[in-house]
């Protein structure tokens, strides 16, 4: 990783470059190309983080609904972790939720992924439940976390 991280729109041509990141980070629970294609075709908000040379460092997606938004994924290449890439991607997702006027953002994170949980907590996410055996085939539990932004953050007091 050389210089500054750039965030841009996740496009179909990024899929081939994110698949090895998926395989490395998530193993048997990785997303398939079809899952990424479906997310993009559905018009969900996806961003990719790239380095100066255009190589993909990480990616993240958000599904926005009328009353809430769900973080679909955030992944950062191992050699780019702990350099602010995940933080930048999360901030971009939260900014999109704010632009859409959605105050409640939810996500699922592996119960054994303490570093990610810590990052989310710094942005106001709090655990609200557990989905037992959510991640398959490992049967790992998912911690459901929620962030509710204050109304004043969106220019309204309702």
TrEMBL record:
InterPro entries: AcTrfase_RimI/Ard1, Acyl_CoA_acyltransferase, Bact_Acetyltransf, GNAT_dom. One of its GO terms (cellular component) is ribosome. It comes from the Bacteria. Pfam families: Acetyltransf_1 (PF00583). Gene3D superfamilies: 3.40.630.30. PROSITE patterns: GNAT (PS51186). GO terms for molecular function: N-acetyltransferase activity. Keywords: Acyltransferase, Ribonucleoprotein, Ribosomal protein, Transferase. CDD domains: NAT_SF. Residues 5-150 form the N-acetyltransferase domain. NCBIfam families: rimI (TIGR01575). This is [SSU ribosomal protein S18P]-alanine acetyltransferase. It comes from Micromonospora halophytica. The lineage of its organism: Bacteria, Bacillati, Actinomycetota, Actinomycetes, Micromonosporales.
């Amino acid at each position: 990783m050389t210089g500054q991280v750039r965030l841009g729109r996740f496009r179909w041509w990024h899929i081939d470059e994110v698949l090895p990141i998926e395989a490395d980070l998530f193993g048997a629970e990785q997303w398939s190309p079809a899952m990424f294609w479906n997310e993009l075709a559905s018009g969900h908000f996806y961003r990719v983080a790239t380095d100066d040379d255009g190589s993909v460092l990480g990616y993240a997606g958000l599904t926005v609904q009328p009353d809430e938004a769900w973080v679909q994924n955030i992944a950062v290449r191992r050699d780019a972790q702990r350099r602010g890439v995940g933080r930048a991607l999360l901030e971009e997702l939260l900014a999109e939720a704010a632009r859409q006027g959605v105050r409640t953002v939810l996500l699922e994170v592996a119960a054994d992924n303490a570093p990610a949980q810590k990052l989310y907590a710094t942005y106001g996410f709090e655990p609200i439940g557990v989905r037992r055996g959510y991640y398959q085939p490992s049967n790992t539990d998912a911690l459901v976390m929620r962030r509710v932004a204050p109304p004043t953050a969106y220019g309204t007091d309702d």
